[in-house]
Design brief:
alpha+beta; Ribosomal Protein S5, domain 2; Alpha-Beta Plaits; 2 domains; four-stranded antiparallel beta sheet; 11 helices; transferase; galactokinase activity; nucleotide-binding; GHMP_knse_ATP-bd_CS
Length: 383
């Protein structure tokens, strides 16, 4: 962390001409299980990862917000008096959207000073590892402190969610931001999307020499299936006449097979069983440890492939290769739109697995996935 923190301080000083008044950071995140359960009032199991977005901020004497980043050539500037969703564009919509959303949840933006903000990050972008959540969370905790707003964790998560929906134009669940706010080292967050409760689950990866290996096939899906799957879930809920798929027990679902088309039944089957798998992994981690969760992770992937039609040949090849060469379990990240997946592996087996991936993908005439290790890390902090 020291390098990126130093880089962020130096970048701020170079652009704005003075030392920042504070430094904050938030991690990327990875959903181990339950990605789409978030939208069905179910459970999600996620980790924060050891890749972070760092925000340096300085208080101004006027009402201007100025934001700059290592990823942008220009400084975005706007007065707090003119801060509206249709006035911010591009990457700056994320940090400025958070400022706007704070005003929407009750912060008196007429009483706060302007700020200079500089952003640096080593969270991979566009691969399902929460780069936007890390940015929004880091900015949210910085503004919460700089403006002395005293919002709690759930309040900050709602601010980030509102910013992404109303300003960026992307609908997300609260489970995207909760891990980036409260996660602890070597822990996962079990989040209940109905009650909004969250529990820290000890992973024990360190004690067992386990790591998460991210595999990026580089093959993005041509079309995003998330909207289609959302519509299918809602159709199944209507036909089953239940509040949400969270309310259907796995053992009862077969009783309703005739009420749904074959396609809708498979979609419902994935969500209903996935919600149970999340709870099963949490229980297994508590009672047996991380070496016993691989089969559940792989069962989740099989359901994503067979019931949710979310996999791809490249993802299937990577997962089969990983499981054949020591991975305890492997699963795509999200719905496979970015072509990335993760494998739970012993760190001592990583090199062997990378060689096996190179060989398997070469045999199929396609480029081998880029790979990198991520570890469960802590949530947002002020440095």
């Amino acid at each position: 962390m020291s390098d990126i923190r130093d880089d962020t301080r130096a970048g701020f000083a170079e652009i704005f001409g003075y030392e920042p008044h504070g430094l904050w950071s938030a991690p990327g995140k990875l959903s181990l299980l339950g990605d789409d359960s978030d939208y069905s009032e179910g459970h999600v199991l996620s980790i924060a990862i050891d890749r972070r977005t760092v925000v340096a901020a300085g208080v101004r004497k006027d009402r201007k917000l100025r934001v700059a980043s290592t990823e942008a050539d220009e400084i975005a500037e706007i007065s707090l008096d003119n801060l509206e969703p249709d006035q911010v564009h591009g990457w700056a919509a994320y940090p400025l959207g958070v400022a706007w959303a704070l005003g929407q949840v009750g912060a008196d933006l007429s009483a706060v000073p302007g700020l200079d903000i500089f952003v640096d990050s080593d969270v991979p972008v566009g691969v399902g590892l929460g780069s936007s959540a890390a940015l929004e969370t880091a900015v949210a905790v910085a503004l919460n402190d700089a403006w002395q707003l005293s919002l709690d964790t759930l309040g900050l998560a709602r601010v980030c969610q509102k910013a992404e929906k109303s300003v960026v134009g992307r609908v997300t669940g609260l489970a995207d931001h909760i891990p980036t706010l409260i996660a602890e080292d070597d822990h996962a967050i079990l989040f209940d999307s109905r009650s909004l409760d969250s529990d820290q689950i000890k992973l024990g990866f360190l004690d067992h020499g386990l790591v998460i290996l991210v595999l990026d096939t580089g093959v993005e899906r041509a079309t995003d299936i998330s909207t289609e799957r959302f519509s299918e879930r809602e159709a199944a809920v209507d036909l089953l006449d239940i509040p949400s798929l969270r309310d259907m027990a796995p053992k009862r679902l077969p009783e309703f097979r005739e009420a749904l088309s074959a396609g809708l039944y498979r979609r419902a089957e994935h969500i209903v069983n996935e919600n149970q798998r999340v709870l099963d992994v949490a229980r297994t981690l508590r009672n047996e440890g991380p070496q016993s969760i691989g089969d559940i992770i792989s069962a989740s992937q099989a359901s994503l492939r067979d019931d949710y039609d979310a996999s791809s040949p490249e993802i299937d090849l990577a997962i089969d290769t990983a499981l054949a060469h020591g991975a305890l379990g492997a699963r795509m990240i999200g719905l496979g739109n970015s072509g990335t997946l993760y494998a739970l592996v012993h760190e001592s087996d990583v090199s062997l697995l990378q060689v096996a991936l190179d060989g398997a993908f070469s045999e199929h005439g396609v480029q081998a996935p880029a790979t990198y290790i991520v570890r469960p890390s802590r949530g947002a902090v002020k440095h």
